[in-house]
Design brief:
It is built from five helices and two strands. By secondary structure, it is mainly alpha-helical. It has a domain of about 80 residues. Strands 1-2 form a two-stranded antiparallel sheet. A hairpin with a 2-residue loop joins strand 1 and strand 2. Helix 3 packs across helix 4 and helix 4 runs antiparallel to helix 5. The longest helix has about 30 residues. It starts with a helix and ends with a helix. The mean pLDDT is about 85.
Amino acid sequence: MEQKKQEEKEAVGYKKPPRHTQFKPGQSGNPKGRPKKAATLPDVLSKELRTRVPIVNNGKRKKVSMLEAIVKQHLNKAASGDSKAAAIVFNHLKENKLDVGDNLSELVHEFRAVHNRNVAADQDRSECSNGEDKN
């Protein structure tokens, strides 16, 4: 009788694998698991643009997404007279046509005036420095 019980315990067949090949308790059947997907540039860029960074706005500190911080910085540069930044902003506005009733032409006129003032100021500074070198 005891021999029958041992044979039943050690029986091998359908749904009865040999004892020595079975997983030990606490051992996974796939220890390494499925390999992770390789990170692509768009995935990494998207993740980084969503990270929150602290900024100071009107003396108050708050956290915004990296994308929002970049846009704010770019718009501030454009507003202060950076012609390259303004050109990029205007090109983007032209491509996306944000509002039907926008005042893009007024903004373009204003930015051109600021740009012209900056160019004139740069020319004045260069003329002053050239005049001092000659004396």
